[in-house]
Amino acid sequence: MRKVLIVALREYVETVKTRAFLFGVILMPAVIIGIMILSLRISEVTRSEAMPPRPVLVLDRHGAVLPHLERAFEEFNAANPNQPLVLVRPGSQEESFDAALTRMRDGEVEAVLEVSTDAVGGEGGVRLARRGAQLDLWRTLSRMAQEAIVRVRFEQENPPLDREYVLRLERGAPFELVDVATGATGGDEATRALTPFIFVFVLYMGMMGISYGLLTSVIEEKNSRIVEVLLSAVSPLQLMAGKIIGMVLVGATMLTVWVVVGYCGAQMRGMTYLVEARTLVLAVLYFIPGFLLMSSLLAGVGAACNTLKEAQSMSSPLSLINIVPIMLSFQISQYPNSALSVALSYVPPITPFVMILRICGDQRLPFWELVLTQLLLWASVLAAMWAASKVFRIGILMYGKPPSLIELARWVRYT
Amino acid sequence: MSEAMTLEGVGKRFGDFVAVESLTLRVPAGQIVGFLGPNGAGKTTTLRMVMSILLPDTGHISVLGRPAASEVKDRIGYLPEERGLYRKMTVEKTLRYFGQLKGLAGPDLSRRIAAGLERIGLANWAGTKIEGLSKGMQQKVQFLATVLHEPELVVLDEPFSGLDPINTEALKELMFDLRRRGTTVLFSTHQMESAERLCDRIVLINRGRLLLEGVLSEIRAQFASRIVTLEGEGDFEPLRTLPGIVSAEISGGQAQLELGDSLAPDAVLRRAMEQVRITHFEVHRPSLHQIFVKLVGADHDAGARGGAVAIAPAEGAA
Q1: What is d(CA B175, CA B185) in angstroms, rounded to the nearest whole number?
Q2: Average pLDDT over every residue of B163-183
Q3: CATH assignment of A52-170, given 3.40.710.10, 3.40.630.30, 3.30.470.20, 3.40.190.10?
Q4: Minimal-distance CA residue of chain A relative to B51
Q5: Which of B13, B92, B101 to mutate to test the interface with A (most CBs of A within 10 A)?
């Protein structure tokens, strides 16, 4: 056991020191957070930037809508004095939409808004021509047009209707969402729905990180022929166990950093309601065997191959199957007790991902499901370690063409 | 304990290929034993079985009195033929890691690392990364890692491969150091000159089988060729008719005679001195190289004919 720990410690220290680890753990989250903050700042700057007035050609075929639009433009310009809109009237009342589009193409106006004759009374609507994907401008103009049309409708009511009165009748009742687990209320529902996804994505990154690290390290030892020297001091099983433990520690470090950063971030923005302590504990309980399983399989693959490229192509089925829960994360977290979610929980390599998604979706999954998936996970960890140690023992001293999966199976059976 | 290691009827196959066939040999403690054989003879496979890296299919191995090296790993030092070091680790950390894996720790380990680096002349390189060392230096570091824990048995697979003459000499000195300390050294090599200078005993294998084993000087005596050369002033011709002479080449003041089994070289010298003033007399001693080439060549011929080897001379110590 002492030797296993020595191997694990070296593996841990040497991996944590590498540039790839620093990049993956510290730099990448830092860059992601940096970009997020920067883009927020940039959009603030853009919003406050002074821009030349934007002319909008309005074709009011109805006739009564225009005055309301004019007032809306004035209100908008009062609220956004540095990015004013200018309402442009058509040259003649008969100016066609196509002619207006030509003026727009020539650069005379920024957008064209056409309110049809029966926009107020009948089924007719509004046409808006705008350049490219300027979402904000489109939203502003469509909101203004809708509001103007509604105002005209109210004016035309006889006897007149009090708009404020109608709005009061239609107002929504205050709605409060309560978490069954925490009792917490409030918070942004979109963020809440996104949380399981972020959670699983972080775990996925961690798992990919240690997978890659383990493959690299096994292949390095194999290629640089260190392995035989090591095997004169430790048994193949000790070597493999040491490397796996070292790598799981690396994964744990990585996740700890991210979780602490994430938690502090959530606390700063008052969003700690997003992840419950129980979920975090369960995440640890699922990801320790998850990491162990993945590492054992990859230690076997790494030992059987000679180059990182070979190892990556041989381990690609594993990477692919791990993407499945990522792709299905929305369905699983929204419908945690659907047949698909339950079935996927019992596919060992992805059990941790699926279970975490389900737990995020339903804080009170049946206890027997937790027990059963844990048992399954640990049983597959033991099976994978057993098989991997066999492959490891043969493969680690084998050079040349990597074995096929069938040959690998034979190694496991005959040693 | 008189034997550091014994092999009895050890065999190993890889599929249809017989790498080692029923090998039996003993390595007495405290000696330097050369393990010789052509490429593919089964040397590395044998050493790997000794180290429990491969498991033999048949036979028994005993290392330092135990049935497997895996039980006494901390008392053995092994330098494999395929060797390497972590490129990104410093010399000092590399040695510390391997030392720890061999059960060393604390100040004792630090002291040994410092003394070892001093001994191999790399005291100033302790903080350098392995990738910053020359190949020769890396090999020395590797050798140091092998013996840092002062093992009772050191197994070296092709320790001289890739070394320049200076480093080869340095390594030989280190191996003599080991013997002075009472360490048993088993090493495989192609370099007959090195084996000749270093070994107390040799083991020669070919095609997975033992050809020859024994004390080097005795083996030499056994294979001493029956050729003598004489130089001097006088007439060598009468020697031609000496009973037991197989052939003779005589020219001027020189004679080269091949002797039959019944005729001893000193008898020829005594007889010659009666007629000639001898200035030079030489009994040709075969070099290990010649013995190697002769035995292995004959074994390959036997193999080609499908016959068995019948060359290994009986050896008392075996």
Answers
A1: 8
A2: 89
A3: 3.40.190.10
A4: A232
A5: B101
Residues of B in contact with A224 (CB under 8 A): 84-87
Crossing angle of the two packed helices B91-101 and B106-119, in degrees rounded to 10: 130
Q: Which residues of B touch A18 (CB under 8 A)?
A: 88
Residue B302 lies in a domain: no
Better-predicted residue by pLDDT, B280 or A178: B280
Rounded alpha-carbon distances, angstroms, from residue A302 to A111, A206, A248, A391: 60, 18, 16, 10
**Mean pLDDT score, A224-247:** 86
8 Å CB contact between B10 and B180? no
Within a domain: B37: yes
> Which residue in B45, B52, B75, B82 has the most chain A C-beta atoms within 10 A of its own C-beta, making it the best mutation to test that interface?
B82
Show residues of chain A in contact with B89, CB under 8 Å.
Answer: 14
Give A83-95 pLDDT, tens digit per residue.
888 888 887 777 8
Contact (CB<8Å) A14/B80: no
Question: Going by C-beta distance under 8 Å and a sequence separation of 6 or more, which residues neighbour residue A37?
Answer: none
Same structural domain for residues B81 and B192? yes
Mean residue pLDDT of chain A comes to 84
CB B63 within 8 A of CB B76: yes
Tokens standing for B290? 């010649």
Q: Are residues B167 and B40 in the same domain?
A: yes
Task: Name which of A3, A226, A232 is nearest B84 (Cβ-Cβ).
Answer: A226
Task: Check CB contact under 8 Å for A229 and B86.
Answer: no
Which string of DSSP letters, residue by residue, matches B231-264?
Answer: EEES--GGGGGSTTEEEEEEETTEEEEEEPTT--
User: Residues with Cβ < 8 Å from A246, sequence gap 6 or more?
Assistant: A7, A8, A9, A10, A11, A12, A15
Express each pLDDT in A157-181 by its tens digit.
888 888 888 889 989 888 877 766 6
Contact A206, A258 (CB under 8 A): yes
User: Vertex B312, ends B154 and B247: CA angle to 5°?
Assistant: 125
CA distance linking residue A321 with residue A340, whole number of Å? 15
Is this complex's ipTM strictly greater than 0.95?
Answer: no
B76 touches chain A (CB under 8 A): yes
Are B147 and B180 in contact by the 8 Å Cβ rule? The answer is: no
User: Which member of B70, B83, B87 has the closest CB to residue A229?
Assistant: B83
User: Once rounded to an integer, what is the mean pLDDT over residues A365-382?
Assistant: 92
| Cβ neighbours of B100 in A, within 8 Å | 6
Q: E strands, A102-166, where?
A: 111-115, 126-130
Tokens of A209: 């990180």
B88 touches chain A (CB under 8 A): yes
Structure tokens, A272: 């700690």
Q: Which residues of A touch B80 (CB under 8 A)?
A: 225, 228-229, 232
Question: Looking at residue B308, what is its pLDDT?
Answer: 44
pLDDT of residue A183: 66
- Which residues of B are less than 8 Å from A228 in CB distance? 48, 53, 80, 82-83
Query: Using an 8 Å Cβ cutoff, are B212 and B311 in contact?
Result: yes
Q: Tell me the CATH number at B255.
A: 3.30.70.100
